[in-house]
Amino acid sequence: MENYKRKREKQRVRVRTKYEIIGFISSGTYGRVYKARPREGPPIELAIKKFKPEREGEARPTSGISQSACREIGLCRELHHENIIELCEVIMDDNAIHMVMDYAEFDLLSIMQHHTHHLRKPMSELVVKSILWQLINGVAYLHANLILQRDLKPANIMITSSGVVKVGDLGLARVFRRPFQTLYNGDKVVVTVWYRAPELLLGSRHYTTAVDMWSIGCIFAEMLALRALFKGEEVKMEKKQIPFQRSQVNKILEILGTPTKEQWPKLELMPDFQHMKQFRHYSNSLKTWYANTGHKSDQGFQLLSSLLDYDPERRISASEALDHPYFKEEPKPVKHPFLEQNISYPKRRLTLDELCDAKSQHTKLVNMEPAVSGSSTANTVT
Amino acid sequence: SQFQRFLLTRYELAEIESTHMIQLTNHEITHLKIYFADLILKIGKRLRTRQEIIATAIVYFKRFYINNTFYDIDPYLMAATCMYLACKVEENPHHIKHIWSESSAMFTETSPDIRFPYDIPDIAECESYLLEEMKFYLVVYHPYQVLIDESIKLSKPALQASWSIINDS
Description:
heterodimer; A: 382 residues; alpha+beta; 15 helices; globular; B: 169 residues; mainly alpha; 9 helices; 0% strand; Prot_kinase_dom (chain A)
């Protein structure tokens, strides 16, 4: 095995030999994301996601790669679609997995925040519609390949500087055909609470692509109003018991009204149905809500309410949604909305703090490989 | 990715294997492959995993030894690692400890006087080599579902024969 290790070590390409790290983008429980540029070839921008080595400080690994890294890499490797983040390659370096991916200048969350805090005006209908259509297009591709995204939210929707949507973060995504274990057993809680579909909130053990469509409905509404549609307060998990998300359910009822048996025939079969009795009766006020956003398209309202259908079986599917009349009426969705409308948003901020951190790791590398890393230090500083 | 990257013709494979033959004969390589495929199957049975996961593990094992010889990494360790990774990819994860204990039990069964010479970190480390060697292409397609869908049309012996062929892949 020692021989093999040496052979492997020789073949290894170091991330920093091949790519130049321009800056640090963000970090999360999984690790860190950097912006980078290849040292050779066309000058394109890339994002490098570096997974944390499982426990820092430990000399030897104890459990191998995490389930979420495994999913994300396994799935992204097979997926190629213009509205899905493309995985270019995976590199093992410094005991950590580095995913080299498409770089997107913005994400939907940052764009919406820019509209709220700086521009103080809503997103134009053309932009909303174009983003929505591309988002559905990407998700339709996932669903056609029997994959559930399970964590659609504005922060996970990347947008390039010309306005092309790239659905990202497939860490929770999984194939749903013939599961060896029920979806519920695999991951008890899925989807960020504001974007979680009612069947999930009511403890459904089985769920379908409709959960992603609900999230899309919430995101559509959020683009129209520039604030989350159902902004419930999450009840934290206690003693490994999955709590009932009372506040979130209440927010949904306030706008969509109390669901009737006609609207959702299988409602009473939901595991957490008994919780429904504690709420007072509401009637549906989505129409008023929609009118208040200032949007006039009736087809837009039709699409929104089909996405937010209580009954997961009746909720509109991604492929149906792509053909919705809303996308056929003016203004029609375009591929590069920002380019056509000449809109520019402030670029992603790259923090320097973390860059210093990257540099300190870098110096470590310099000691090991002075010839390769020397030139890049100068570049990173500038 | 399976189609684009891992389908080799008989001749390509023979060529690669001829480079390995400095140390082992053609026959020995074939025998070792059959032996370890069977070993993975036995580990899988101990873990009570499904046939498809076992099949994935065997495919990983074979992919690894396309470009590496049995001298590079001990195939016993690799067999355990393939099983561990396959369970994760097929969404039926087992704790690494569990994989380790079943694999070492299996090992003792086949050679009672030697202890399984690896520990848990070895499996985790070996996994990273396996991943790299496969260039992180993890999804394996098995035609089991096609067979199940077609099974109504087939006669019993034909069904049995096709099932064995798939198991053999």
